[in-house]
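SAMPLE LOG
Freezer: B-3
Tube label: C17
Construct: single chain, 424 aa
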Amino acid sequence: MTLRIEYVHAVEILDSRARPTLSVTLRTTAGITVRAGVPSGASTGTREAVELRDGDQSRYGGQGVTGAVAHVNGEIAKALVGRRFGSAAELDAVLIELDGTPTKSRLGANAIVGVSIAAARAEAAARGQELWQRISETTGARPLLPVPHFNVVNGGAHAANSLDFQEFMLAPLGAPSLPEAVRAGAEVYARLRARLAAAGHAVGLGDEGGFAPAIDRPEDVLHQLVEAIDDAGYTPGRDGIAIALDPAASEFYRDGRYLISGQDLTSAQLIDRYEEMTDRFPVWSIEDGLAENDWDGWTQLTARLGTRIQLVGDDIFVTDPAIITEAVDRKVANAALIKVNQIGTVTETLEAIRICREAGYTQMVSHRSGETEDTFIADLVIGAGCGQLKSGAPARGERIAKYNRLIETADTHPELPFGLTSDR
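STRUCTURE (predicted):
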């Protein structure tokens, strides 16, 4: 199988936060046409691959991506059109070499990742496969329908409220199937809305579809979630619906201290607070519990809670194979968040997943706060057998598109296992 590229073209479109991003169209000489929408984050790690933004304040407040679009339509298209590639990985290698920077800052990670996702789709189509099937073959992983993690309360950089923690998620670990997991998330989401409204809270939505109530203390949100789970007729806990947190601690880390709800905490004091939350509430996973540069704190957090709950590195790892390798050596965290635009190509993303798997680290595939209707991550999480996907609340079209892709795949491929691991 070879890919001969006939056409590559990008256009500036809008993401779910009304900010510009790219849509990339790629066509092969065999008549295969595919498209990819590029996601964009609000809460980002400093070591992420670099998006290229125009900086022209006269349009979109400087956030335009016409420069990145021009790179796709110019330099990247010139390097790809007319060439034959034995695989999407070969094409990714050309993109990496063409950019020539460690962070993809010359051409823009947003330009490169759109072409990379489109190439992965074209390769699967050329082989007559679903995208997840091709990813499974590439990685050697057994395909797996994941447990969805629904972000139902937003704070931090994702909402205009005073809640410092960024995401509170529902994880239907005890669901018997993917469709039942989605149903559970949607039903609890509805009950949570009713509870918040009854308490006088606004029920407007944050960037990822979760509610953004005027609640300061994370413990108060956790209480509301447990009550909503119970209201909906489910069991709070790992046998039913558990809770996952993404405090995004880098966002409230200042001069070596953590500023939460008016409190000024050391790393050790914040770890104590996480342990208390884990004791009181059915919290099974904490992502970015400490800041990206607080490596000593992460070591302490992992030693204290790493045998009890999942500790996910996001800003600290940025889906970078080299950083994840260092974290494994230093016994930091026990899981990694996987975001393809953090590293910039599908090939490097799959390498990060491979390193995690070999080290015994779990993986949670993730959307970004600025999304499109593109469903690539749903195929990625199935094909790579990661077992966990977070794509926001069970609301808003750009979030629901991913969950619906999972439901459709579960329906057309009933042989696929569901759960955190394929041996469930």
